[in-house]
């Protein structure tokens, strides 16, 4: 490998390191320079495909950022040669999108943006990677074809939509974990926003000019959809820029563009003259201290790089100066266009006034004959008409003076513009010629306007406005008659509405009467049930209190058991399970006191497990050398026993089951977790070590049992669904259950392949050591397998519970099955990744495991599709049922649906509060760790 190739490998490897830090710009620059040196990007892709894009999420994130920068600033051939890798880019996003965490969703969205950029440049080869292009080049490319403008505008909008989606997911990820922009973790997520701003700014400018171009040649109603979409994008881009601007991290890196308060009005060409394109400026980066990128780099190469940077900087300054000059030129042209538009407006107004005077004059001639006959009756109004005539003359004079002042102001502005253009005569020769022609036209228009104004003034002295006043009176009378007719129609409509409302009110009163009767019957039944319940509770209360009181005394006794730390861990898991079971049995007992036997049995089993745990902890305290940790374990064990006293009080006094649930979820579980962590840390530091092999095998065994049980439960649900449903519901249930069953089969195969690969890894890696020693030396790897196994088991249970709720309730939209399926897919991905860490790359079992993982992903997609299609079919079926109901039944169903909506809104609010509390707790735990 030559020196340049070796440098490129090192740069890409360092750029895509898996640490949670932002992409180093110097490494990205080295890759960009390499594309210009070699005039290709194939060598870059050959190195990228060997990076761990599928193993580390931050490697995938930096890969998207680096590829985006290379496509923007690298050699133009990069865009064309990267098209063959679209499938790989999307596969990276799809893999990490399954994790449903902050960075995973960001990676998935960013990969879609990168692929969209490749496709955009493929369709519109005229655009460079930086998207910086003069609009006259776009006009030449389109050849004034409105169809091309229309399609290009849609593609630019799509591009901006992808940018908005990426930035919104970045901010959501930062806000969820409350990251600062000045920490490496925050900057890792926020750094790509600079490139997104560089892309969105020219795209926004192009979209504005395209919209003005389209509105200049097409009817406004044809472009309603374009205007609505642009206004939505405008508000989102402005919100994006306003969110970035206050962040301290960007203050020294980029000058964020500023957008106006309101979107441009494309229906007025005046806004085109007032439009100023926003500018973005990326500040020169400070040179970072060298990191010995390659040991054999020479000072000559460094000097070449510095010289290139200086040349690039000088060219950027020249480009900025030229851009400022072009902006000044555009402003001058826009002002001239605005003056032309205003002159045309004045011409139109004067023409309108002239036509009115002509009409008035002709009307005056027609009324002269009739005026002789009605002269006597009009003499009383002559003075008033004369007065109004004088007022009209004064108003016309004032209007004329305003026009003259306005024209004078415009003449002054034209003079100023002319002097400004004269100063730049050498630079803008063509512009000056065009400007002189426009000035001559303006002077001709002014002379014409002055002549027409003089004619109008003379006409005002001769015109009699008496007939105009009469016509106005007649018009007002006609308007009054129309208003009276409209009011009569309104009164008639309101009368009909009142009649309909009276009918509906009568129907509601009948329904309320029926509901009151049913409510009285229900209250009587409830009173009867309460009396029966009180009788039963009085009979069992004394027996229950005595039994529970005696059973809790067993806590003071210690029983002999297997005195090992592993046994203590088993007891902790058993206690956690029994606490959950205790809550379930107590709920059953609260509903039916005859279920007390299950409650007492659970209490006795719980006490036995707690006694065994205490015995193991006492043995650990007397056996280990680390007395500090031993004392902590013993103290927490005693605290755990004390935390069970409120449970005793709840059970003895028959309190609300929700109180018991809150107590179990708070202190006891937290104490058990602390004891578990202390025992694990103590055993890991002991000479014997933790029997990870035993734990892993037990966890895998438990996972197999749970998945087998879940599969059988799904089959049982399927059988119940056949007996209780028919028609469309049965068809929907069959499709969903078939997809869930296929997912379970795929998971079984994946677990089997994972186990075979695990055995191969242990056989190859343990050497002369026993298997237990291998797991001890690779505890982190074993822990990853254990964690993945637990997550898969939890996902399988959640899937069964979700399916059961879906088929036993009347809900037609239940997305819990989708969430459960995606969670299982994410957990299996974790299991695959944990297995790949230690596996040989050429292992056939690894290939089989990878194929099984793809099958699980495909099965997950089938579950999602089946649920969504089923929801649509059930919604359509419910709509057909509603069409067959009577008006009374429709009203009853409406009230039932309204009650359901209120219940769902309340449930949604409660779940959002729980989610907020959960995130706060996770954030606090993350800080503590």
Automatic annotation (TrEMBL):
Q: Where does the source fall among the domains of life?
A: Eukaryota
Q: Name one GO cellular component term.
A: cortical actin cytoskeleton
- Matches recorded under CDD domains: ANTH_N_HIP1_like (cd17006)
Localization in the cell: Cytoplasm
Report which residue ranges the record marks as coiled coil. 305-395, 463-592
**Gene3D superfamilies from the UniProt entry:** 1.25.40.90, I/LWEQ domain
Name any one GO molecular function: actin filament binding
Describe the location of the ENTH domain by residue ranges. Answer: 1-128
Keyword terms of this UniProt record: Actin-binding, Coiled coil, Cytoplasm
Stretches assigned to the I/LWEQ domain: 684-926
For the biological process aspect of GO, one term held by this record is: actin filament organization
Sequence similarity: Belongs to the SLA2 family.
Kindly provide the name given to this protein in its UniProt entry: I/LWEQ domain-containing protein
Q: Which organism is it from?
A: Glossina brevipalpis
């Amino acid at each position: 490998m030559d020196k340049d190739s070796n440098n490129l490998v090192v740069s890409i490897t360092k750029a895509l390191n898996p640490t949670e830090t932002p992409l180093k710009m110097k490494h990205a620059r080295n890759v960009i320079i390499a594309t210009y040196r070699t005039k290709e990007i194939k060598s870059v892709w050959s190195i990228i495909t060997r990076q761990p894009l599928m193993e580390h999420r931050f490697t995938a994130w930096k890969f998207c950022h680096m590829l985006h920068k290379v496509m923007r600033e690298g050699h133009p051939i990069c865009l064309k040669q990267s098209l063959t890798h679209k499938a790989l880019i999307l596969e990276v996003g799809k893999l990490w999108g399954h994790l449903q965490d902050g960075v995973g969703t960001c990676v998935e969205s960013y990969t879609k943006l990168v692929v969209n950029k490749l496709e955009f440049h493929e369709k519109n080869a005229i655009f460079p990677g930086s998207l910086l292009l003069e609009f006259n080049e776009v006009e030449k490319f389109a050849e004034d074809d409105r169809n091309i403008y229309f399609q290009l505008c849609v593609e630019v909008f799509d591009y901006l939509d992808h940018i908005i989606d990426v930035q919104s997911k970045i901010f959501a990820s930062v806000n969820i974990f409350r990251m600062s922009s000045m920490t490496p973790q925050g900057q890792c997520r926020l750094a790509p926003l600079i490139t997104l701003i560089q892309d969105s700014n020219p795209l926004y400018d192009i979209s504005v000019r395209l919209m003005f171009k389209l509105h200049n040649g097409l009817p406004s109603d044809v472009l309603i959809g374009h205007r609505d979409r642009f206004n939505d994008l405008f508000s989102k881009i402005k919100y994006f820029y306003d969110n970035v601007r206050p962040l301290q991290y960007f203050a020294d890196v980029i000058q964020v563009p500023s957008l106006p308060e309101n979107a441009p009005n494309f229906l007025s060409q005046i806004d085109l003259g007032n439009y100023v394109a926003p500018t973005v400026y990326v500040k020169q980066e400070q040179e970072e201290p060298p990191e010995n990128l390659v040991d054999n780099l020479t000072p000559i190469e460094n000097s070449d790089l510095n010289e290139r940077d200086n040349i690039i900087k000088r060219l950027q300054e020249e480009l900025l100066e030229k851009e400022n000059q072009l902006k000044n030129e555009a402003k001058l042209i826009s002002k001239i266009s605005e003056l032309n538009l205003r002159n045309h407006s004045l011409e139109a107004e004067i023409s309108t006034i002239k036509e009115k005077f002509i009409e008035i004059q002709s009307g005056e001639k027609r009324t002269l004959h009739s005026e002789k006959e009605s002269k006597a009756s009009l003499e009383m109004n002559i003075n008033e008409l004369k007065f109004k005539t004088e007022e009209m003359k004064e108003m016309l004079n004032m209007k004329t003076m305003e026009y003259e002042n306005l024209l004078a102001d415009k003449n002054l502005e034209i003079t100023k513009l002319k002097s400004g253009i004269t100063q730049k005569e050498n630079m803008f020769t063509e512009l000056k010629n065009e400007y002189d022609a426009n000035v001559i036209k303006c002077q001709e228009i002014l002379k014409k306007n002055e002549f027409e104004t003089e004619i109008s003034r003379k006409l005002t002295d001769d015109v009699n406005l008496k007939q105009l006043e009469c016509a106005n009176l007649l018009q007002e009378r006609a308007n009054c008659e129309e208003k009276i007719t409209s009011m009569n129609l309104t009164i008639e409509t309101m009368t009909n509405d009142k009649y309909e409302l009276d009918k509906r009110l009568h129907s509601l009163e009948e329904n309320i009467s029926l509901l009151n009767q049913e409510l009285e019957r229900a209250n009587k039944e409830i009173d009867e049930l309460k009396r029966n319940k009180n009788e039963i509770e009085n009979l069992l209360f004394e027996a229950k209190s005595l039994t529970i009181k005696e059973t809790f005394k067993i806590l003071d006794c210690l029983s002999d058991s297997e005195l090992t730390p592993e046994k203590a861990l088993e007891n902790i898991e058993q206690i956690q399970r029994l606490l959950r079971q205790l809550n379930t049995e107590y709920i059953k007992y609260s509903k039916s006191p005859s279920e007390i036997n299950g409650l007492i049995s659970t209490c006795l089993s719980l006490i036995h497990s707690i006694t065994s745990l205490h015995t193991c902890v006492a043995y650990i305290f007397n056996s280990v050398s680390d007395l500090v940790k031993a004392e902590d374990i013993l103290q927490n064990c005693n605290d755990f026993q004390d935390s069970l006293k409120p449970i005793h009080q709840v059970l003895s006094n028959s309190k609300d089951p929700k109180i018991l649930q809150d107590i179990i979820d708070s202190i006891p579980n937290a104490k058990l977790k602390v004891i578990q962590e202390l025992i694990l840390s103590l055993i890991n530091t002991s000479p014997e070590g933790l029997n990870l092999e035993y734990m892993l095998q037990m966890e895998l065994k438990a996972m197999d049992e749970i998945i087998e049980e879940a599969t059988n439960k799904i089959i049982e649900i399927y059988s119940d669904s056949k007996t209780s449903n028919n028609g469309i519901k049965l068809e929907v249930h069959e499709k969903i259950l078939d997809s869930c069953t296929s997912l379970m089969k795929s998971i079984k195969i994946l677990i089997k392949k994972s186990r075979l690969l695990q055995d191969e890894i242990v056989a190859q890696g343990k050497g002369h050591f026993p298997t237990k020693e291998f797991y001890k030396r690779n505890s982190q790897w074993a822990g990853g397998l254990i964690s993945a196994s637990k997550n898969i088991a939890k996902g399988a249970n959640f899937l069964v519970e979700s399916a059961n709720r879906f088929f036993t309730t009347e809900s037609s939209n239940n997305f819990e099955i989708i969430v459960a399926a995606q969670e299982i897919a994410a957990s299996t991905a974790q299991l695959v990744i944990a297995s790949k860490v230690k596996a040989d790359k050429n292992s056939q079992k690894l290939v089989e495991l990878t194929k099984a993982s793809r099958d699980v992903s495909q099965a997950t997609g089938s579950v999602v599709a089946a649920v969504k299609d089923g929801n649509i079919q059930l919604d359509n079926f419910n709509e057909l049922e509603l069409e067959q109901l009577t008006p009374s039944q429709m009203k009853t169903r409406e009230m039932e649906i309204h009650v359901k909506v209120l219940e769902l809104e309340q449930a949604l609010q409660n779940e959002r509060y729980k989610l907020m509390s959960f995130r706060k707790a996770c954030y606090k735990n993350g800080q503590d760790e």
